[in-house]
């Protein structure tokens, strides 16, 4: 593989980044409670993977499994089941998971933000009635979270990782703060950053695969690949597939 890269450089062609030798990675964008789309995409991943040579297959979820869409609870339950599948499954924590955990732990400010970004749909998926939710103040909302959300779901989400590296790729939810080493990145940037990251055109040292910032189609730049295609509203859930220097896309 190194010789192939040297040949490309000598020929004037830009060498594409690669994942670890022997790995095949499928990174999935923001699901946001759309279990129907997740099932379709997982089926496409299964078919795609089975049609290729044997490899160590990883599926990476880039965060924001919950909120906005109608089936957050069942998405979490599906994710928990996937954790015991034949594939290596990696879950990254998004800003919506951060809000969900903080609100469950009693953070009123987080509960207020959660209420504005799709938390209603999540609570309804856990059995809260529309009447209960719509008549709740912030204090009541904290009580509903503690009453209806199973603690094992919170523990599962709380264990999500902040980033994952495979050779020349790094996978994060939102992005990276430019000019800051990966190990010095703040969690707030990994889960929330937008403009400073999206407008940065220089290399981050690694090719960044991220979600968080919605684009109509895959946003492929020289230093990053954005795959949040707004599934909860668009019906298009996207995964990028990576093997050695090859890159392709699957979507619903």
Biggest β-sheet: strands ordered side by side in the sheet: 3-2-1-9-10
* H-E string: HEHEHEHHHHHHEEHHEEEHEE
| Number of contiguous helices | 12
Q: Could you tell me the strand content as a percent range?
A: 15-25%
Spans of at least 5 consecutive residues with low confidence: 1-12
State the shape: globular
Average predicted confidence as pLDDT: 94
What integer value in Å does the Rg equal? 19 Å
* Main sheet makeup: 5 strands, mixed
The SS-based structural class is alpha/beta
- The residue fraction in helices comes out at 25-40%
Q: Count the strands? A: 10
What is the CA–CA distance across the termini? 32 Å
List the defining traits of the structure above:
single chain, 252 residues, 5-stranded mixed β-sheet, globular, disordered N terminus
Outline of the structure:
With 252 residues, this protein is of the alpha/beta class. The protein has twelve helices and ten strands.
In words, what does this structure look like?
The chain is α/β, with parallel strands linked by helices and 252 residues long. 40% of the residues lie in helices and 18% in strands. 40% of the residues are buried. Helix 4 packs across helix 5.
SSE layout:
Layout: H1 2-10, E1 23-28, H2 35-50, E2 56-61, H3 72-82, E3 88-91, H4 95-104, H5 108-116, H6 119-125, H7 130-134, H8 138-148, H9 151-158, E4 163-166, E5 169-172, H10 187-192, H11 195-198, E6 207-210, E7 219-220, E8 224-226, H12 231-234, E9 238-243, E10 246-251
Parallel strand pairs: 1-2, 2-3, 5-6, 6-8
Antiparallel strand pairs: 1-9, 4-5, 7-8, 9-10
Helix pairs in contact: 4-5
């Amino acid at each position: 593989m190194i010789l192939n890269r040297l040949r490309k450089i000598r020929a004037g062609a830009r060498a594409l980044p690669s994942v670890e030798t022997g790995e095949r990675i499928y990174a999935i964008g923001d699901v946001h409670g759309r279990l129907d789309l997740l099932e379709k995409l997982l089926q496409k991943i299964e078919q795609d993977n089975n049609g290729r040579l044997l490899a160590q297959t990883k599926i990476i979820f880039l965060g924001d499994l919950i909120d906005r869409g109608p089936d957050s609870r069942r998405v979490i339950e599906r994710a928990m089941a996937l954790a015991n599948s034949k594939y290596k499954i990696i879950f990254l924590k998004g800003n919506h998971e951060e809000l969900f955990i903080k609100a469950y732990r009693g953070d009123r400010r987080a509960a207020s933000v959660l209420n504005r970004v799709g938390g209603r749909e999540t609570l309804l998926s856990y059995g809260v009635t529309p009447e209960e939710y719509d008549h709740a103040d912030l204090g009541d909302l904290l009580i509903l979270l503690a009453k209806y959300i199973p603690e094992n779901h919170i523990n599962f989400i709380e264990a999500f990782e902040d980033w994952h590296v495979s050779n020349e790729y790094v996978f994060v939810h939102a992005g990276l703060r430019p000019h800051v080493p990966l190990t010095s990145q703040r969690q707030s940037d990994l889960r929330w950053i937008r403009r400073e990251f999206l407008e940065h055109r220089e290399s981050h040292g690694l090719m960044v695969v991220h979600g968080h910032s919605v684009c109509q189609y895959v946003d492929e730049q020289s230093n990053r690949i954005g795959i949040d295609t707004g599934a909860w509203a668009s019906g298009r859930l996207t995964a990028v597939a990576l093997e050695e220097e090859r890159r392709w896309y699957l979507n619903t």
